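Thread: Newbie trying to understand structure tokens

Hi all, I'm a second-year student working on a class project, and my supervisor (Dr. K.) asked me to get a predicted structure for one chain before our next meeting. I've only ever worked with sequences, so writing a 3D structure as a token string is new to me. If someone could post the tokens and maybe explain what I'm looking at, I'd be very grateful. Here's the chain:
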Amino acid sequence: MRHLLEIDDLTGVEVREVLSKSRGEFTRRSGAEGVALIFEMPSARTRNSVEMACVQIGVHPTYISASELGFDVRESVEDITRALAQYYDVVCARIHNHSILERMMALDVVPIVNMLSSRSHPLQGLADVLTIQEEFGDLAGRTVAYLGYPSNVWRSLSLAAGILGMNVRLAVPAEYQPSAAVLAEIAASGADIEMVSSPLIAVKDADVVYTDRWVSMGEEAQTEARLRDFSSFTVTDEVMELAAPDAIFLHCLPAKRDEEVSASVLDGPQSRVWKQAKNRMHTARGTLSWLIER
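---
Reply by user tm_fold:
Sure, no problem. This is what the structure looks like when written as tokens:
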């Protein structure tokens, strides 16, 4: 049984298979299969993209709030997973604590898909590389410059990029650098990671410039410090001019205009954020199809 908690749960060949299913024609199933969608955190893109992906391939999605399940309060994570496995062919979860996903996966009774956790965001990473692939074709040797806080989105993007032969530059203040363990894990995927303190150095001749919110859900207490420490990391038109002439801008959304990215870049001709958002649906469809067929 296969699961997707992080990009490197897939081999390079399998990532390409999922991307191929995401791009191409898809088979509509009989409607007998069901997919559980567990949401501990609200979401616009994740819920809508995954639900529509289910509809497109002919499986039934069921939205379940985490309060209805009560992980380790009403019932253990393990017993909840065993119960859901009686009804559903795949269980997807958007949840704070990554270890809950690991406990669900360890039972190996139903495929588990991570729709976002504190650790990773694999469906977003797949949508990111699909968007880059649609723009440039062959990804080998291409460079992604990521500016700002190295979030779960950065981690999954870096793993996907490494598996597909891309280079990753991270522009981040020294006090926010990822741990040695995280860097080693990403390097093991094949990613050539370069860390710099200057956004201007990071974007030099890069093919893709990427950023994310400096303060995510659950981190509001750090807002003041993050705004201060990342104030020079905003992606502006001047920053984009240093990238390759055909460079594109990506953001997982939601975006804070004129904070981590200027409105002129987010809404400008190099931005591919809406194609990227649409690809969340395509890669969810490709992932679910791949898992169910297996």
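A couple of things are worth pointing out once you decode it. Strands lie at 34-39, 60-65, 90-94, 112-116, 143-147, 167-171, 192-196, 208-211, 248-251. The first helix runs from residue 12 to 23. Feel free to ask follow-ups in this thread.
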